[in-house]
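Batch job 17 of 40 flagged for manual review because the log was empty.
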Amino acid sequence: MRNRNLLLLLFAILVLLLIYLLRGCWPGEETEVAPPAGDPVIAPIAIAFLDGASATTVNVKNVNITLTDSRGQVRTCNGDSIVAFTLDVGVMCLGIKKGVNLSPETPYSFTIRAEAADYSTTLQTIVVTNEKPMYIPIYMASIKTPPPGVAVRTQQFNVLDAKLGQGLMDTLKIPGVGQLQINIPEGTQLLRNGIPVEGSNGRMQVTFGDPLSMGAARVFPNGPLVTNAVDPNGTAIASDTSPFFFQSLGWLTVDMEVDGEKVNGFSQEVEFTLPINPELLNPETGGPYSSGMQVPVWSLDENTGAWRQEYKTTLESQGEFNPLRARIRSKHLSTWNLDFFTAPCTGNLNFTIVNSGCAGNLTSEITLSTGGFLKTNVLTYNAGANLIDLIRVPNTALTGGTVQFRVYDTDTPSPGGAPVLGTIGLSNCTPAPTSLSILPASTGAATGCNLFSLEVSLETTTSTVPLCHNALWYKVDTGGSDDLSIATWDFAGHFDGNGVVRMTQLDPTTDYRFMVWWGASPSSNSIRWSIEAGLRTSTGCGATPFDPRLSSTFTGLTRQIRQRCYNDGTTTCTDSGTGSYDCAISGTNFNSARGVFLRILNFPGSATLPPCI
């Protein structure tokens, strides 16, 4: 028996040795396995987190992001799967994995939760209905300098045996609206998922938003378009394909923690009393609100972005010269919202914007007079006619108010004092006028419609891949070797499938810094470089002595930068990349069409690149 076991052991050793030999490996020798490439993506979405109070672009820094993606198809634009990460400069690019069918009938949705120091936490559900690139700004409310119409109060308190030794009673004045009252009784036990919290140092932050303020409407958690909601019985009443719009009377977010542990429940009911702006109109009657009316109270699930109708509260009078008020009573923490809702128009709304100037990116915004801001995007307007096709526009024939589509002469998503190029009325589901002509100055009309294109390739030791479908960000170059501390990145455009992005908004005398967000594990990776004005107005081909001051969280990168075409755009330089950029400008309104090709060498093989599609 012993000899038999010994023979079996020797046989097993010989089999293992043969396997190693056939694989070309000897025992003790490790083989390098190439990491899997990222997934190709469609529908790239550039996203920026912006300070809602600023009239110019101010990115929120060090934003902690959590994705809720039930179908698991969201990727970074370089194809990586992620769930939770930190953005150091407040910009990113996401997409949907190739193979997902996208249409208005089969949309794809996911929810982003964003947290940052000195800002109120916010959520945003993004619904994707086609493969076209998008840019979505998400606004956040600063605690120290909140937007107009937003009031924030932070309060410290003591906790003993998970209970309040003293009740929390406070009054927060809302300019032009009234007073918000807070009442959490003495002895209330503070809970986390039903379990008493441990600790002694408590902190509560209360944020209130007046829906008639554009600033407050911008930072309304998860926005007015509702694609996930249930009634008091848990029955679904909104979905991606059957949404509705909130028309809010006011919203309130309450965050509480004890020694860093979040509180989300109480042992007894607490009460918040909200003032109602007297200028608000009831969407069900078209007239002002009055005492005795009942209004639905909604709570927001801060993980999934779903709204739940809790109950109805009764509006109360505070006297002839005081605003109405509404009481919210609950045993859990949330964002609460007092809201009626309205259905969208049954069909798409179509109209034409005729750009008589240069092609480029322009901020476009939809607003509702009875509910403030609805949506802001930065859209690309080509020279000539641009068909705008809107879905999910509120049906004001049912609720009153005025819906408008505005185009601003800027590509900054916080348009501030930028001129309004034109307005299309959308009330009663009827665009008026159906065609609008604009002449934007910000896209280069004053300087001659100079098109500048940038092609970027990333080269590892084994492959070369154009940087495709990612978002490009830009700002004025301040001259520093690295300027991440200055968070003012604007959206320049998306790289196409050949790794080319085209811009007309660049001033010909200004040096610019560019950035691509690469992904997160767990903090942001980025690649940054500069392109001076002289390089963008060059009249020669070949390699240039210009140093683009390449900076990155990846180490050891080198670069080579070459002219792609110059002057009137009729000449294509040799050795100038493999993209689809056409230097010819005949038949267009461009006066010049210059471009450069940037090769980024020694890119780490571990940062695998998805194929372009």
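Reviewer: the log was empty due to a logging misconfiguration, but the result itself is present. The chain has four helices and 43 strands. Unflagging and moving on to job 18.
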